[in-house]
Amino acid sequence: MKRVLFFLVLVLNGVIFSCKDAQETTDIQVVTPEEMQQISETEGVQLVDVRTPEEYDEGYIEGFQNIDYYSDTFIEDIEKLDKTKPVIVYCRSGRRSSDCAKQLKDKGFVKIYDLDGGIEKWKFKGFEVKTKS
Fold first, then answer.
1. What is the pTM of this model?
2. At 18, is the secondary structure helix, strand, or coil?
């Protein structure tokens, strides 16, 4: 029930704030680790970690695919995602994911969530990080 209520609040929030600028069709929402955890459990949400493969191997959030922001194929890789489905992005501290979110918006993605403070804030808040072992 809490998930449904949280999702409805997010949808209503998106509708209310999207009305303030009718020409802006894509919404980038910066979210807290708590919000991201709940949103990531929503069916159909695409989960993207934009750090380097080396950073990813040191620790990652389960379920997120790694698309390296610095890769020569970054644009092609993000264009393989479904523009009609929401996307959550994160990086180490928030800078790359913010830049990525802007690129996703420019590419026409419908809903973009950006983790505030990146995986560093995620870890600071005590959320689980997986490692390759």
1. 0.79
2. helix
Q: Where are the alpha helices (DSSP H) in 1-133?
A: 2-18, 33-40, 53-58, 74-79, 95-106, 118-124
- Give strand pairing partners of 89: 48, 114
d(CA 13, CA 48): 23
Q: At what angle do helices 33-40 and 2-18 cross, to 10 degrees?
A: 110
Q: Which residues are catalytic?
A: 91
With b meaning 16 or more CB within 10 Å and e meaning fewer, what string describes 68-77?
bbeeeeeeeb
Q: Which CATH class is domain 2-124?
A: alpha beta
Structure tokens, 102: 């802007």
pLDDT tens column, 64-114: 999 999 999 999 999 999 999 999 999 999 999 999 999 999 999 999 999
Look at residue 60 and give its three-state secondary structure: strand
